[in-house]
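Proteins fold reproducibly. Consider a sample protein:
=====
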Amino acid sequence: MIKSLAFGVLAAGLAAVAQPAHADTDVKFALDWKFEGPSAPYFVALDKGYYKAEGLNVTIDTGPGSVAGIGRVAAGTYPLGFFDINSLVKFRDQNPDKAVKAVLMVYDNPPFAIATTTKTGISKPKDLEGKILGAPAADGAFAQWKAFVKENAIDDSKVKIDNIGFPVREPMLADGKVDAITGFSFSMYFNLLQRNLKPDDIKMMLMSDYGLVLYGNAVMVNPDFAKANPKIVAGFVRATIKGIQDTVKDPDAAIKSVMKRNETADEKTELERLKMSLRDNFVTPWVKANGLGDVDMARLSKSIEQIGITYEFKAKPKAEDVFTSEFLPPAADRKL
């Protein structure tokens, strides 16, 4: 009896060993843009095994911009993506049946900015009067123009708006064909350096320094995926936060994870772009005090009101319609 019991236990043990290991869950994640410096945290989380430790096999793809990719998340093409929360507010207004939500705020301050050069004499927003502003119609920063005008008492009838394409934006400013341009700060700045401008020649006005309370890009999730896989979403968020924390601590090491995926990029430029985004967008005084990933719902509500200056709502979404903190780890785990 004892022998047969022992044999049974041994057989059960061998059967357990013979079972294949539980496979990781495949998760597709879309960035807003190319593999550049600011995307380092996701690749750090990948390379250090933080996603793996959560049972996730994460694939990271480039994206079509901080606006267009939201539709991919809504459609479920990508269950998770990294896009502009202000665009999500508009998307939710236009598509009330597609309950995409942000679950992790990454850019506590958005990189929306107006860039100019010292030779134009523009040093503050009001100085744009009487000047030519080069602004691609599809630019996320230009979408905030009316709110920026209101907050800074600019007479926009005195500003000539030149609708220019993204590829010629910085060249036109460098050549003096326009006096200022709109865009993401960490894109325009380094593009202008490549046009042989010196750092002292470039003046960057972050809209968040001039009255805009908007948030920036956040990790967003497909509603059906979130409902069916809450632990996967929470695991992805937890691992990503670890990636951000490591990137903040050592950006010089973090940039190596980007360069492995973008060998044609210039490492020095991407490192400086990363450091600029960490300083201006990731690590704000609020984030230092409260930790990564969450939002101040009162500020988010005010930002939706500010979006209403530039956009006519059909049925204005509420803050809780566009962001949830339910997948965030405790604040103590989100501190820098």
